[in-house]
TrEMBL record:
This is Methyltransferase, TIGR04325 family. Keywords: Methyltransferase, Transferase. InterPro entries: Put_MTase_LIC12133, SAM-dependent_MTases_sf. NCBIfam families: MTase_LIC12133 (TIGR04325). One of its GO terms (molecular function) is methyltransferase activity. The keyword Cytoplasm does not apply.
Length: 341
């Protein structure tokens, strides 16, 4: 960090001599970003010591440079205050909490998924995803994300074999991220994409991706069948997951892919609460950690055959919970191929 302070000092000097030089400004922007990321990943106990050291001096150089001296807009101020409030809460409350009473837990502070902050974050992330799918770079910034998308590519390829056009129902698909990923993975296949979501996300999805069909009412999306039915990190957030699984299976002509599903191997299924503040989601929601065998037995009872199970690199450790959970993906196909229309 001593070197970082020296670099910032030199960059500030360069800026004063070359005000119109964008390369100098970009160096300062990058340095500011590095300092911000350093502090965001630093434990609270080390903040004061760090601020009094070289990294703090580097920050003060930037702060006193007068390169940018603008007041926050009203919208920025509100957003910042919301983040600070959630950080204060999260400093006391854990991200994950075991709920022994399950879905009967009385907690009126739980806001659920239909909140504006989730839409705001999803829309902020969309331009980066658009750039990614239009490039030749790996899909995802991590091995975990890349594995998740490449696994989906396998499922998509199986569904699309010998077809020029496929239909997809994405149950709980946000603002349609998987539509863009699907088009990138299968550019020569025509994709008729349908997405079931909460009202806020449907509104945002229609604005961002008007070619996708969005449904607030699940009964509307279940009026037809699809080549591929996808539920990625969504089924666990429904209290009566069996009813939804039954409906998903009923409209699946070829493939049903339920993935990023938290499962346990020994304990009975149980419910947890997640406070998703660190993702910028200013909300909390309950979800299942499902017993793997119970889940598979139920899908089998729906006449769905397990084609393949996938490892998903997400694990959850919740204090006092009966068992740690890990995510899995499950690809099913109908055991009896009838004429679903």
């Amino acid at each position: 960090m001593v070197k970082k302070t020296e670099n910032i000092t030199q960059s500030l000097k360069d800026y004063q001599e070359q005000i119109e030089n964008k390369n100098v400004i970009n160096k300062l922007i990058y340095s500011r970003k590095e300092i911000a990321e350093y502090w965001l990943n630093l434990s609270t106990d080390n903040l004061e010591k760090s601020y009094l050291g070289n990294i703090g001096r580097a920050y003060k150089f930037l702060l006193n440079s007068n390169i940018k001296n603008e007041s926050l807009t009203e919208e920025e101020t509100i957003f910042l205050n919301e983040i600070l409030e959630n950080q204060r809460e999260s400093s006391v409350l854990p991200e994950w909490e075991y709920l022994p009473e399950g879905w009967g837990t009385k907690n009126f502070s739980i806001k659920g998924w239909d909140v504006e902050s989730i839409l705001k974050i999803r829309k902020q992330n969309l331009p980066e995803l658009l750039q990614l799918v239009q490039s030749t770079r790996p899909l995802g910034k991590s091995y975990s994300a890349h594995n998740t998308y490449m696994t989906y590519a396998y499922v998509l390829a199986l569904t699309a074999r010998k077809k020029d056009k496929i239909s997809i129902l994405d149950w709980g698909g946000g603002i349609g991220d998987y539509y863009l990923i699907s088009k990138s993975l299968m550019p020569d296949i025509e994709i008729d994409y349908h997405c079931k979501e909460v009202p806020f996300l449907c509104e945002g999805g229609r604005e961002c991706l008007p070619e996708v069909h969005f449904y607030e009412d699940e009964e509307e999306c279940f009026k037809q069948s699809y080549d591929l039915v996808l539920a990625s990190s969504s089924l666990q957030y429904v209290e009566n997951w069996q009813i939804v699984a039954q409906k998903l299976a009923a409209v699946s002509r070829s493939s049903l892919y339920i993935t990023r599903l938290p499962i346990v191997h020994q304990a009975e299924s149980f419910v947890v609460l997640q406070r998703a503040y660190r993702y910028g989601y200013q909300t909390e929601y309950m979800g299942w950690f499902l017993n793997r065998q119970v889940f598979l037995n139920y899908l089998s009872s729906l006449q769905m055959e397990l084609v393949r199970e996938f490892l998903i690199e997400e694990r959850f450790s919740v204090q006092d919970a009966p068992e740690h959970a890990e995510c899995r993906g499950f690809l099913f196909c109908p055991q009896v191929y009838g004429s679903k229309t």
